[in-house]
Structure formats: structure tokens, C-alpha cells
Design brief:
The complex is a heterodimer.
Chain A: E1 2-6, E2 20-24, H1 30-40, H2 42-48, E3 59-63, E4 66-67, E5 82-88
Parallel strand pairs in A: 1-5
Antiparallel strand pairs in A: 1-2, 3-4, 3-5
Helix pairs in contact in A: 1-2
Chain B: E1 14-20, E2 23-29, E3 37-42, E4 47-54, E5 61-68, E6 72-73, E7 76-78, E8 105-111, E9 120-125, E10 128-132, E11 140-141, H1 143-146, E12 162-168, E13 176-181, E14 184-188, E15 196-197, E16 218-223, E17 231-235, E18 239-242, E19 250-251, E20 260-266, E21 274-279, E22 294-297, E23 305-307, E24 325-327, E25 335-338, E26 343-347, E27 355-359, E28 364-371
Antiparallel strand pairs in B: 1-2, 1-28, 2-3, 4-5, 5-6, 5-7, 8-9, 9-10, 10-11, 12-13, 13-14, 14-15, 16-17, 17-18, 18-19, 20-21, 21-22, 22-23, 24-25, 25-26, 26-27
Classes of the chains: A alpha+beta, B mainly beta.
Chain lengths: 93, 373
């Protein structure tokens, strides 16, 4: 299966300056899809998740338009051909 | 994002590393310290609480711990005064999985002693010390402090449970002191294997037991390099001196408008001399009476004198945070501080007169000095 990740601007230096990264392999969940992304772009991992493997509090991940906060978190299912968007949350000061 | 300006420091120049809530700035001046050039902002949008200059072993290495609200933080280094910075793919400061902890903020970077020239220490939130013995390539958690039996009773202060102070004893290689808000000061005498609290005489205004063994909200501690028995401590209410390397503390808030404050800095040579910036109270953390006053002692805290020349003395409700003041090693010593409103002041004559170095920076959280070798 294939999953297409959209990479936010501040993190593209860890994705070979690409705005999207297409990964292939077996992934039933967001967690497993992210693991494919980390293999392809290892520098993204510690920017998106903490050392506990939790998505950073001010980072949002959307699967086919739905925030994973509301569809099962990192265990949310992922379909073949899914688009996963990583975005900074609206926060700051 | 703004393009960073760069400075080109030369041997003998003075450096100021100024960490702000929105990036790092680097200032340089000749040893007269009258005219400053500014470089930066580096890491725009990142909070930089920790910065250091490592000049051991022929290095000219800047260190910074920029923290993104979104993407976390890593330690980054520059060997060309900010033109380029490392950006490791894998975060270099990470809690081991078995701790169940995640890094929130890097608060302090301290190069090791001259005798351990590839060693660096980092203080972080949640309160912990990380150590590197390979010039910052890899880091490991100090397990002795992390597993301290008193840790479950440490409580976070307003800045989180942060380990904000690391003092390497200048004469005793196995000794190191750290301070945590809110846990107090701890000392190790065996190179970090075991730690014990060292807060005798320090008040905990906010606890029923005003003088507990630990649990004080120590804001900053400094130690004399010339006479390491002499230390000063700015507490969350309380200004203290120690003459026995922190084994006991004496209240020396003599003649200051408030004994609440964050910043304290020690003279590089004279153990009797130190500077503070008192704030009105923990409810109103601003300079009292709208006057921006640095107070200095030259007699170990028996008296404190307001040093106000060149500083605003009306409508100046400023805040100087715990790492917001630093002293350089020139003679006479330079004293520098930054405010939460982004004003950077400096004195090249030990506080007798002050000039504005920058006005309009983002909120300043750290000021560090160095001399380029």
C-alpha cells in the first residue's frame, strides 16, 4: 500500500526539501504509517513525536482530512492511498 | 522568516549571547564594550533559554537550545559565530524510555572544566542533568539525580520543574551543585553518583515548614571562582550568602527594596561582590516603584547599593528573569542584563553607569557573556 504525507514548511529540510513524501509498505494505522515515514525521513520523527512516541501537543495530524484526535489517535486506520497531513497547530504568542 | 545578520568577532572581543522567546541574538564589542554590533536573530520563532560559548581546546563554539512550541527542541552548535548551525536529525537530549519522561525545555548548557574539555552539562525540564563526554555528540541522563528518592515531592514552579542552574566546583572535580524550581539546591561530591539537598537556612515562604530540608524555590545560585566557599542565592523570597559552599545560608537582604527576584551574578574575581535586580513581589514581578535598579554589594551582602546611572527611574516596570543577567571576566567587569520587555542594558564599569545596548528585542530570558580567545 502507499501513503502520501504532506510535510509542513519548517520540517522540509528533514524530507529532502520535499513538500510531500510518498511511502510504501504495510500500514494499518497512523502509527505504522508514521513508522514508514521515519524510515524514509528519520529527522522528522523527533520533531513530530516526543521520545514517548506521543504526537507533540501543538502538532496536528490529519488522515484524509480528519484530525486523528477524533478518529482514534495514532491507532486510527489508514487506507491504501491515504493522504496524511502534518501541520503545526494554531498556537503561540 | 527574517534573514539573520552576522557579526565577525575577533580575538579579545566581548560576546553577549542573548536568548529570547523568539530567537537567539549575538552581540560583539571590543574590550572597551562601548559599542555593540548585533547578529541574529538565529532560530527565529524559537524560545532560547539556554546558550553558551565553549572556548576550550581551541574551539569557538556557540551552543543554543532553541525550543519550538510545535517541533520540540534540540541542542545546536555553531563553529562560525552563527553563520551555520548543526541540526541533528535525532534529538540529542532525550529521556530514556524507562523514565517515562519527555523533554520539555533545555534550560542550561554549561561547558565542563578546562580539565574535561570534551565534557558538557545540560539542565532541563523535567528537572534533570544530561552529560556529554564527546563534545556534545551524545548525551546521557544523570541517573543519580533522576532517581533521587525526594524527586516525587519536587513540585514545578511557574517555569515548570526546571533545572536551571549547574555549578561546577572550581577546585573539587567531583563536586557539582544544581538548583531546581521547586526542589532547592542539591550537591554531589562523587561526580554525580549521589546527591543531597543543600538548603539549610533558605526559606520556603509558601510551605507550612518555612525551613524544610528541600522544596525551596531557588531562583538562581552563583559561586565565586576565586573563593568557592562563597556563594550567593536569590530565592523566591530571600537573598542569601553562604561561606561554606552552600552547606548553610545566611539572609543578607540588607537594605534592598525587596528580597524577591530572579537574577543574581557574581564578580569574576572579588568574592564579596555580586549584583541583583530586586522585583516587588511574587504577585507583582516588576521592579519596585517603577524604577529599574540593579543593586550591588561589595562586602558580601552586608550592604547593597542601588546602581541606577543611565537606567530609567520612572514608569519602568521591568522584569529580569533568572538567567537574564551576567558578568564578564574583563577588568573592570562588565555587567549585562535583559528584560522581559526586550531591553538589553550593559555596564563596562561594574554597574556604576549603564547604557542601552538594544531596545525592542523579543522578551529576554537568557544573557551569557564570553571573551573570544
Amino acid at each position: 500500500m502507499a501513503v502520501n504525507f504532506l510535510i509542513p514548511g519548517p520540517l522540509r529540510e528533514f524530507a529532502g526539501n520535499r513538500s510531500d513524501v510518498r511511502t510504501s509498505g504495510q500500514a494499518r494505522s497512523v502509527n505504522e504509517a508514521l513508522a514508514m515515514l521515519w524510515r524514509e525521513c528519520p529527522g522528522l520523527r523527533d520533531r513530530v513525536v516526543t521520545e514517548l512516541g506521543e504526537v507533540r501537543p501543538h502538532v496536528n495530524i490529519f488522515v484524509d482530512g480528519d484530525s486523528i484526535r477524533y478518529i482514534g489517535g495514532l491507532e486510527a486506520p489508514v487506507r491504501d492511498g491515504a493522504e496524511i497531513v502534518i501541520l503545526p497547530a494554531l498556537s503561540g504568542g | 522568516m527574517p534573514d539573520a545578520r552576522h557579526v565577525s568577532p575577533k580575538s579579545g572581543d566581548a560576546l553577549l549571547l542573548v536568548g529570547t522567546m523568539k530567537g537567539l541574538f549575538l552581540f560583539r564589542a571590543d574590550k572597551g564594550r562601548a559599542k555593540w554590533e548585533m547578529g541574529g536573530p538565529y532560530f527565529p520563532g524559537f524560545a532560547v533559554y539556554a546558550a553558551a560559548f565553549d572556548s576550550r581546546a581551541g574551539r569557538h563554539r556557540l551552543w543554543a537550545g532553541p525550543q519550538s512550541m510545535h517541533w520540540g527542541g534540540v541542542l545546536r552548535a555553531s563553529d562560525d559565530f552563527g553563520h551555520t548551525w548543526t541540526n541533528p536529525e535525532e534529538a540529542n537530549i532525550k529521556f530514556p524510555a524507562e523514565t517515562g519522561a519527555a523533554l520539555k525545555q533545555i534550560w542550561q548548557i554549561v561547558p565542563g572544566r578546562d580539565s574535561e574539555r570534551d565534557t558538557l552539562y545540560a539542565g532541563v525540564e523535567p528537572a534533570a542533568v544530561f552529560v556529554s563526554h564527546d563534545a556534545g555528540e551524545t548525551w546521557s541522563l544523570n541517573e543519580g539525580l533522576w532517581n533521587h528518592p525526594q524527586r516525587p515531592r519536587w513540585e514545578p514552579g511557574g517555569g515548570g520543574l526546571c533545572l536551571h542552574t549547574i555549578l561546577l566546583d572550581p577546585e573539587r572535580p567531583g563536586q557539582m551543585r544544581i538548583a531546581v524550581s521547586t526542589a532547592g539546591m542539591y550537591v554531589t561530591e562523587d561526580g554525580g553518583a549521589t546527591w543531597r539537598p543543600s538548603n539549610k537556612g533558605v526559606r520556603a515562604q509558601f510551605l507550612p515548614d518555612k525551613y524544610p530540608e528541600f522544596g525551596q524555590c531557588v531562583h538562581k545560585v552563583v559561586q565565586s571562582k576565586q573563593k568557592p566557599d562563597r556563594m550567593f542565592l536569590q530565592n523566591h523570597w530571600g537573598l542569601y550568602r553562604s561561606d561554606d559552599r552552600g552547606e548553610s545560608w545566611t539572609d543578607v537582604a540588607n537594605g534592598v527594596p525587596s528580597d524577591f527576584g530572579f537574577a543574581i551574578a557574581a564578580h569574576p574575581r572579588n568574592p564579596d561582590q555580586a549584583w541583583i535586580v530586586p522585583l516587588e513581589s511574587d504577585e507583582f514581578r516588576c521592579t519596585p516603584e517603577g524604577k529599574l535598579r540593579v543593586y550591588a554589594t561589595r562586602d558580601g551582602g552586608q550592604r547593597w547599593e542601588a546602581m541606577t546611572g543611565g537606567l530609567p527611574q520612572s514608569d519602568a516596570f521591568e522584569t529580569v528573569l533568572r538567567d537574564g543577567m551576567a558578568v564578564d571576566a574583563f577588568d573592570p567587569a562588565g555587567v549585562f542584563f535583559g528584560t522581559r520587555s526586550g531591553k538589553l542594558f550593559g555596564s563596562a564599569d561594574e554597574g556604576r553607569s549603564w547604557t542601552s545596548i538594544a531596545d525592542g528585542l523579543p522578551p529576554i530570558v537568557a544573557v551569557k557573556t564570553a571573551i573570544v580567545p
